Each structure stands twice: as structure tokens, then as C-alpha cells.
Amino acid sequence: MIFSKKQLFTIAVMVLATSIACNNFPYSKTNQFYKKHTKQLAKLIKEDPSMQTVNQLPKAADWVGTTNFDLRKPNFVVIHHTAQNACEQTLKTFTLERTKVSAHYVICKDGTIHHMLNDYMRAWHGGISKWGNNTDLNSSSIGIELDNNGFEPFDSAQINSLLLLLAQLKETYKIPDANFIGHADIAPKRKVDPNIQFPWVVLAQKGYGVWFEPNVNYTLPESMSIPYALAMVGYDIKDTTAAILAFKRHFRTDSTAVITDNDKSVLYQLIQNKLSH
């Protein structure tokens, strides 16, 4: 096929425009870093386990590999707000090595979902954290960041996308209802996200988290202290006031540190729900 000068010029312009567009993509270098790092990790996974054993150990002469294994899977979902002013700002934060922070997903206000890390990988989103006996939530959870400065309501498009994502994660990894929690739940001394305006009750109605309304028929025994009850739910009670505030923000949409009879009723029901599963 022979092209005219005009057609050749048009093709050249299109090729140049495509090249410029690719070069202008701000995350091309960080995407290359991602691919390189995952290849390095994949190499470690494929390595013969006998090669990982310290030489001083009394190793068998021949390596026998098990036939029964798969990848580690997440068992928790931890929801955050970004505490930043735009989705693009968070993407930038998560692609700078010096920040040492990341998440599996970032959901923008308009509902756009950025899947930044393979679900089987360990993101750096929880920091120093504790939930029940679990002291390394990063290793057992998926982190989801919602574009929100921490003082504003959550956009309906954003919550709709979150619900779609949670449905997929729950089905794929068989995550229990009660294991959809917030960053403040696992780090009450340091964090308040996803903030008091987050619609936990909406999520719980769909099976992502649990929610109870106060009920006069259910309350804590007088012999059970508030710190003990909070610990039964999962909270770290090294700082009792912080634990109370985290509980109240999540389960009572309240930012005070005073425990009322209604709060005790909800605490009791949370404990009973945990003991029954």
C-alpha cells in the first residue's frame, strides 16, 4: 500500500501524539519499579526451600516438596480515609519510596478504583496495630483507602464502588463479616479513620462488618469492666480512653469517651456475636 504525503504526515502525528501521551503518564517509572520488585519476589517464592535452610541444620540428603499448599490469603479488610485533599495526592504518596506507606486499593470521590497492589502481597497500611491476638494486621489484611480529608461526608459514588469491591473481596477470600474493620479499630492511639461520618451501618447491612442497635434486653454484666469488654471485642486497651473513642466512633457514631447504658448494650452484643462465631 502506498501512502500519500498527507497520509504519512497524519500517521506521523498520531505516532508522535501516542508517544508523548505515554511519556507524560506520571507513574510509568513507578509501574516499572512494581514489575521489577514483583519479579524479585516471585523468584524467592520459586526458590527450592532446601536452599533457604541454614547450613548448620541437620538437613535431609534429598529435598521432598509438599504437594499441599497455596498462597497466603487475606482474612481482614481494613478501611482508611486518606487524610489528604485529592486522590492524585494519595497516588503520589503511595508511589514515593521514602513514604513507606501503601494500600491495596484507593477509591476516589467519583468512585474510580485504583488497584495498586496484588491482594496477596503485603501492603504497608496498618502500621503498629493490634486486633485481638493479631499484632501484624499488614500480613493478614487488605487495605482500602478512601479519598477523604477526614472531616467530610463520603460521596455516594465512592461508597457504591466500595460496596462492589467489598463484595468481590468477601467472595474471593471468604472474609468473615466481623473482619471488616477500620484503621482506628486496630490503632486507636494513633488513628481516627475512616472518621465518624463513615457509614458502617450501611456496610453491615450488606454483610461487611457487624452492627447492633442498643437493646434493653442485652447489657454487660456488672462484674465485667469496660476495658475487659473492649478487649473481648478486639481492641487494644493499653490506652483505655483511646479504645473507648475508637469503639464509639465505629459502633456508636459518637466522638465522646463516656460509656452509656446504650453503649454497654452494643458492647455486649458484639461480644456475644464474636463468641458465637
Main β sheet profile: 5 strands, mixed
Order of helices and strands: HHEHEEEHEHHHHH
The fourth-level CATH homologous superfamily of the largest domain is Peptidoglycan recognition protein-like
Distance between the termini: 70 Å
- Low-confidence runs: none
Number of helices: 9
CATH architecture of the largest domain: 3-Layer(aba) Sandwich
The total beta strand count reads 5
**Structural class computed from helices and strand pairing:** alpha/beta
* Average pLDDT metric: 91
Using only CA atoms, what is the Rg? 24 Å
Topology-level CATH name of the largest domain: Lysozyme-like
Looking across the biggest beta sheet, what order are the strands in?
Answer: 3-2-4-1-5
CATH hierarchy, class of the largest domain: Alpha Beta
